[in-house]
Amino acid sequence: MAITYGAVKDLSAQLYDWSLRKVPDDTKSGLRAALERETQPGAREILKMMLGSAHRAETEERFVCSDAGVPVYNVTIGTAARLDGDIKAAIRDGFDELVARIRPPLLKHVTNPLTNERGYKGKDMPLVTWDVAGGAEWVEILCQPKALGSGRWAALETFSFPTLQQIEEYVMKVVMQAGSQHCPPVIIGIGIGGSFDVAARIASKATMRPVGSTNAEPVLAAMEERLLRAVNATGFGPMGTGGDTTALAVHADYASGHGYTPVAVCFNCWINRRTRARIHNDGTVERFE
Predict the structure, then answer these.
(1) Could you give the 3-state DSSP secondary structure of residue 254?
(2) pLDDT at 85
(3) Residue 214 vs residues 7, 56, 167, 205: alpha-carbon distances, Å
(4) Per-residue model confidence as pLDDT tens digits over 155-185
(5) How many whole angstroms separate alpha carbon 169 and alpha carbon 158?
(6) Which long-range contacts (CB under 8 A, 24 or more apart) does 92-98 make?
(7) Residue 205: which of 192, 216, 195, 218 has the closest Cα?
(8) 156 in helix, strand or coil?
């Protein structure tokens, strides 16, 4: 058997649909833990509202947020996967079919940056990045829609041989510029090193890590802990109402480079939309989140 165009088309559409109606389990656990720690009454009420919205979206087939963003996929192709059909076209066609049938309907968020014209189609839409997994006999698709809260405030700057302190100062500069406009409590991704494009990709992938997980690199684990304390000490709080919970997690990763060191910072809003599944060569679909 082989992984078909139809299977990829159907799954990519389902993943986007699911991501709009469910807050990931690890994120809900993070929100509940934040509610227990939060000392400000107003912030506690906001966190309760978020958990309530997550519950209603799942049980009543509603969107968690009306800003569905645009579909963004990370596709990993196993070197032992057998493919039958144009996977890139399948993802595009899956989005087109979803637009036609999804209820409630999607708003026109796909924007031409040259004309600001909005619709459902556009160059390179959906946005897809590709990776390879050695020996795997599956194709994995991760959907992480990007809306205003999770996209607008990302930033990148290139340094020459920065210290850890300089990197952390830059992250906090970006955090302060964003303020509460990214719908906190957020998940913060940090990419260090590599090249311009690699650092941005690392930061984006860092946000995919489960909330509550510990970095395997001790230096980065300590950095994440320091930054999480510092971000939450800003006092922006849930949705900018003030409080102890501006971020649920800070996740960082790195790549070796030349010595000039790009540092990228990005955010996911409190919903932290993320769905992931694999299609195996025998046609079975394995859903992870």
Answers:
(1) strand
(2) 93
(3) 34, 30, 20, 15
(4) 999 999 999 999 999 999 999 999 999 999 9
(5) 13
(6) 92/125, 92/126, 93/9, 94/8, 94/9, 94/10, 94/11, 94/12, 94/13, 94/16, 95/12, 95/13, 95/16, 95/71, 95/120, 95/125, 95/126, 96/120, 96/121, 97/9, 97/13, 98/13, 98/16, 98/17
(7) 192
(8) strand
Whole-structure pTM over 0.85, yes or no?
yes
The H or E element containing residue 208 is none
Q: Give residue for tokens 């205003």.
A: 148
Residue 48, classified by CB atoms within 10 Å of its CB into exposed (0-12), middle (13-18) or buried (19+), is middle
CATH classification number, 3-22+64-147+273-287, choose in 3.30.460, 2.60.40, 3.30.1330, 1.10.1070: 3.30.1330
Cα 273 from Cα 226, distance rounded (Å): 25
Q: How far apart are the first and last CA of the chain?
A: 25
Nearest to 24 by CA among 132, 145, 191, 202: 145
Q: Which residues of the chain have pLDDT under 50?
A: none
Residue-level pLDDT at 259: 87
pLDDT score for 88:
96
Euclidean distance between CA atoms 7 and 151, whole angstroms? 29
Say whether 113 sits in a helix, a strand or coil: coil
The answer to whether the beta carbons of residues 151 and 268 sit under 8 Å apart is no
CA 247, CA 233: separation in Å to the nearest integer?
A: 10
